[in-house]
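Assess the record.
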Amino acid sequence: MTGAGESLARPRLLLTGDAAARPAGLERALTRVGFHVGEVPPAPDEPPADVILTTLPTADPERLSHILAAAAAEPPHVIVFATEDRDAPAAALALGAADALASPIHLPDLCARLAARIRERQAPFRTPYETQVRDSLRDLVAEARSPLQPDEIALALVRRLGRALELAHCSFVLTRPGDDQGRIIDHPGDGRAQRPPLELAYYPEIAEAVRSRRALVLMDTQTGDGAATVVLPVVVDDEVSGVLLLRGQDTVPVLSPAQLGLAASLAEAAARALESGRGRNGGPAPPAAPTLDRRLQEELERARRYSLGFSLVLLDVDAPPATDPADLDARDRRRHDLTNRIRRELRLPDFVSGYGDGEFAIVLPETDADGARRSVLRLREHFTGVSAGIAAYPHPAVTAPDDLFALVEAALRRGRAQTGERIGVAD
């Protein structure tokens, strides 16, 4: 029999949702690791719950919204789905859940996540880095709903994690137990489109982290700057998909457990995207980047399904004249360089493609005409002689991509005829 003092000292967990959706042995696993489990909300004069665990059969959007309506004001809210739908946790996280998992559930992992969420909330001073990383996770989840390529999602992870934690280095190495090589995804600062494979024989710490499934901390004994490199294995569906390499700065040499936990959550989201692109059994690589027609069709379908909007921009950029107009390779390189320069100034979900001689089509998800105009004005700060046409959806005259093309081409003609902003907007 547990005394009252001992009971209050144990973390209090409120178990809600559908009993039929609970994993087998859930209550026993929770009490075994020390949780005080209750299924009735505490009375006003009783201590509040430290964490709420809700089990649901599926990710019904209306029900999720109702359950998580007060998630920011409540204790951490963790959602467990009985379904194997891998989009279900993303939906819960986007609506404010502190954590979410889909079946099959590994109970020790669930218990560890619950304890981590409690530690984060009870920390006397939450560092700004943890808040930034959590915001990055939610942004990444939102962007993962758009038709991004898998490598783009992983690259977003690396960029945001490095910036949020002020890391000196951050990279994602995609590998599996038994692999001889790993594929590196990091910020392409050296200008190369893809890094060469990493020979794991020269990096035993990566192989050990993959084998043991435990994070390793390596101190740099050569520079003596006190910074450490963390090798963090990323586990998806009980299988190691790769490792994160995180190196701190002199000023922030060691990452907290909460920061590492959030980094692992981000890495898992990216790893799932990569796995879906290459196949669970090491199958084909992710498909080639979508064409403009296909991307517009996808964006139209997405906008109709979720009652969203987007804009198509046709951008005319004055490029330096070709030295030899007959040199097709040089012209292609110039267009490729301009495309990359434009892409660097846009958001990750945005799509840019060459459209004509000196023209570029840009798809801006969840952006209205005013937002598209602001994007064009930002681009004008980096390019000379810019004119643009904008067509925003929904539009009464648009039922197919061809309708958008007709509108945006007419808008560009009006923009070229102007003397001020040189930005035409479809009526």
